[in-house]
Design a protein that fits this description.
Structural class: alpha/beta
Strand order of the largest sheet: 1-8-7-6-5-4-3-2
Radius of gyration: 19 Å
Order of helices and strands: HEHEHHEHEHEHEHEHEHH
CATH topology of the largest domain: TIM Barrel
Distance between the termini: 12 Å
């Protein structure tokens, strides 16, 4: 069976791939049922779903559990957020190996200091370039050791919001030289910046096979990036577009609205037309009452 990283590469080689974020297995099932070909696990969504902000408070084991559930639920290639790698080089290596064991297709590491913060907030700080390069190098070696290089190592840089676009490009090139196959420029502020970044990186080649470096775009809402359609990202030269917190934001808006109505009226009757029915829920999880349920292999 092909490694999920191999599957994701094949998808990206054929065209831009949309990867909605899933914060649990049920959402992951819905992503697959809707027809998407890849899924994403966001550090931000994973954190807030656990009731804490996205500042690096959760453990590696917590992240791996969510990744495993999303992989099992979706049966799709899953790109996963590894934040700052849960520590220095030794922990970066362990993170790569544990994410591979959890079934991830790939992961991205960022170059912020710990405690990190959301990439679309101000006040970020970067670790020194040589330290970031070392962490990427350790990640790439770990991917070779645990998956024969099939696990995709993506390097995220937050330099645009700290030192400017040129610094982001320079860091990205250094990360490619260190072994990153994919680059994630965080916090870009316009289509023009996405275009400039892609054009600057396009001559770079993957160390693994000499192919062009993959580019990841973060289409998050309420941040520094304007709303850009998937097709436009394809035109700009991007291969994977993640929607990290979209489904959680939609779900929690519905949840808080429904709770307010239930508190006000004392009844859920007025919410029925906004609910997934029992039959629809059973269909999503693949369950027929009275029939033995076969857990997916």
């Amino acid at each position: 069976m092909a490694h999920p990283g191999t599957k994701l590469r094949a998808l990206m080689d054929s065209g831009v791939v949309a990867a909605p974020g899933a914060f649990n297995a049920l959402v992951a099932r819905a992503v697959a049922q809707t027809g998407f070909s890849a899924c994403y696990v966001s550090g931000g969504a994973t954190s807030v779903a656990a009731g804490v902000p996205d500042v690096g408070l959760l453990t590696l084991e917590h992240f791996c559990r969510v990744i495993r559930e999303v992989v099992d639920g979706s049966q799709l290639p899953v790109m996963a957020d590894a934040d700052t790698g849960f520590g220095e080089e030794e922990m970066v290596r362990r993170t790569v190996i544990e994410y591979a064991r959890a079934g991830a297709a790939g992961l991205h590491l960022e170059d912020q200091v710990f405690p990190k913060r959301c990439g679309h907030l101000d006040g970020k700080a970067l670790i020194p370039l040589d330290q970031a390069v070392s962490k990427v190098r350790w990640a790439a070696k770990a991917a070779r050791d645990c998956s024969d290089g099939a696990l995709i190592i993506c390097a995220r840089t937050d330099a645009r919001g700290v030192e400017g676009l040129d610094a982001a490009v320079a860091r990205a090139k250094a990360y490619v030289e260190a072994g990153a196959e994919m680059i994630f420029p965080e916090g870009l502020c316009s289509e023009d910046e996405f275009a400039q970044f892609a054009q600057a990186i396009s001559p770079a080649r993957r160390a693994s096979d000499g192919g062009p470096v993959y580019l990841l775009a973060n289409m998050t809402e309420f941040g520094k990036t304007p709303m850009i359609p998937l097709g436009r990202f394809a035109e700009l030269g991007y291969h994977l577009v993640i929607y990290p917190v979209t489904m959680l934001r939609v779900a929690m808006k519905a949840v808080t609205s429904a709770l307010a109505e239930l508190k006000s009226t004392g009844s859920a009757e007025g919410l029925l037309d906004r609910m997934q029915t029992r039959a629809e829920l059973y269909e999503l999880v693949g369950y027929t009452p009275g029939t033995p349920f076969e857990f997916r292999a």
